[in-house]
Automatic annotation (TrEMBL):
<dbReference type="GO" id="GO:0016765">
    <property type="term" value="F:transferase activity, transferring alkyl or aryl (other than methyl) groups"/>
</dbReference>
<dbReference type="GO" id="GO:0006535">
    <property type="term" value="P:cysteine biosynthetic process from serine"/>
</dbReference>
<comment type="similarity">
    <text>Belongs to the cysteine synthase/cystathionine beta-synthase family.</text>
</comment>
<dbReference type="InterPro" id="IPR001926">
    <property type="entry name" value="TrpB-like_PALP"/>
</dbReference>
<dbReference type="InterPro" id="IPR050214">
    <property type="entry name" value="Cys_Synth/Cystath_Beta-Synth"/>
</dbReference>
<dbReference type="Pfam" id="PF00291">
    <property type="entry name" value="PALP"/>
</dbReference>
<feature type="domain" description="Tryptophan synthase beta chain-like PALP">
    <location>
        <begin position="13"/>
        <end position="310"/>
    </location>
</feature>
<dbReference type="InterPro" id="IPR036052">
    <property type="entry name" value="TrpB-like_PALP_sf"/>
</dbReference>
<keyword id="KW-0663">Pyridoxal phosphate</keyword>
<protein>
    <submittedName>
        <fullName>Pyridoxal-phosphate dependent enzyme</fullName>
    </submittedName>
</protein>
<dbReference type="InterPro" id="IPR001216">
    <property type="entry name" value="P-phosphate_BS"/>
</dbReference>
Length: 343
């Protein structure tokens, strides 16, 4: 009887093997064939599930984790959610330190998954004891049987994508992929995937996406971190004001910067036209792809894969709020969808 029941052990079975989807409407008129790798189909709705599971299972293999151990991380959202989800299933405690820039919704999501959250001031230097980096480090030092994921400086972050995202895209395109467009925060997704793809075919072009206000593009071009590049911006999860060691710049061919407004409008267009309700950085990837196309990067035979990192539900109070869009001055040119109140 029991054998007849078609059930999975838990939701960890739904990490990885995300679908590749054609994008005819948002790429209409562009030379090339365009696909989205939709990471929102992971159990925790983002690509970060892959690294959470991979890094936690690596620690288990090394004997660093036992039932009741604690997993600590600094995170503004997706990685924390994924770690909390994997921890809940595997019976670990999860402590996350986040910046006070994180939305209340995101913090509540982490708590809903059973995590303990420290909300830390965003406007203090990284070495201040109140910064989310320092708070995570001191929590980890104080707790026995705890590990610090440290995604920005952990090679296993990159390896997780080398082992899963890269092979999946190679397989799904039958080895025909010519261009990979991906944003870079920790750089784990772009570098791990790119390393795998370039080992298979060194001619594949890896096109990075960066934000105005982030140092990555300039660093890639000059090898120097230019503090003049640093400025506030709205897109969450891509770009950086430091150079993460999880990023392998040697497998990235170039970077393209996008504006907060263009990325927000592109994400809304993805939802409206392709039915893909994606996060802010997915809009950034689509926008960057259009800018690369305008520079003549692709031809009719190009097979272009864009990686869409997470789901739109995490941005309800930002890019999917007309009020927020209006406040930022991003609403002009956007179609106004009706809302009718029936009394
Ligand atoms: N998009 C979103 C929404 C993210 O949370 C992140 C992770 N910071 C990224 C893109 C970038 O991924 P990675 O850290 O692997 O470079």
């Amino acid at each position: 009887m029991k054998e007849d029941i078609q059930a999975f052990d838990n939701v960890l079975s739904f990490i990885g093997n995300t679908p590749l989807v054609k994008l005819p409407k948002v790429t209409e008129g562009l030379a090339g064939n365009f696909y989205g790798k939709v990471e929102a189909f992971n159990a925790g709705h983002s690509a970060k599930d892959r690294i959470a599971l991979y890094i936690i299972e690596a620690a288990e293999k090394k004997g660093l984790l036992k039932p009741g151990s604690t997993i600590v991380e600094t995170t503004s959202g997706n990685t924390g959610f994924s770690i909390a989800m994997v921890s809940a299933i595997k019976g670990y405690k999860c402590v996350l330190s986040v910046s006070d820039k994180s939305s209340a919704d995101k913090i509540d999501m982490l708590r809903a998954m059973g995590a303990t959250v420290y909300v830390c001031p965003a406007n203090v230097p990284a070495d201040d004891p109140r910064s989310y980096y320092e708070v995570a480090k001191s929590v980890q030092k104080e707790l026995p049987n705890s590990i610090y994921i440290n995604q920005y400086f952990n090679e296993l972050n990159t390896e997780a994508h080398y082992m899963s995202t890269g092979p999946e895209i190679w397989e799904q395109t039958g080895g025909k992929i010519t261009h990979f467009v991906c944003c870079s925060g920790t750089g784990g997704t772009i570098s791990g995937t790119a390393r795998f793809l370039k080992e298979k075919n060194p001619n594949i072009k890896v096109l990075g996406v960066d934000a105005y206000g982030s140092v990555l593009k300039k660093y890639h071009e000059t090898g120097e971190l230019d503090p003049n590049e640093i400025a506030p911006y709205k897109i969450e999860g891509l770009g950086k004001n430091l150079i993460p060691t999880a990023t392998d710049f040697s497998v990235i061919d170039k970077f393209m910067k996008v504006t907060d407004k263009d990325a927000a409008q592109a994400a809304r267009e993805l939802a409206r036209t392709e039915g893909l309700f994606m996060g802010y950085t997915s809009g950034a990837v689509l926008q960057a792809t259009r800018q690369y196309a305008a520079q003549g990067e692709f031809d009719k035979d190009s097979v272009v894969v864009m990686l869409f990192p997470d789901h739109g539900s995490r941005y309800m109070s930002k890019i999917y709020s007309d009020t927020w869009m209006e406040q930022q001055g991003f609403l002009d040119g956007e179609p106004k969808n009706e809302i009718n109140y029936v009394k």
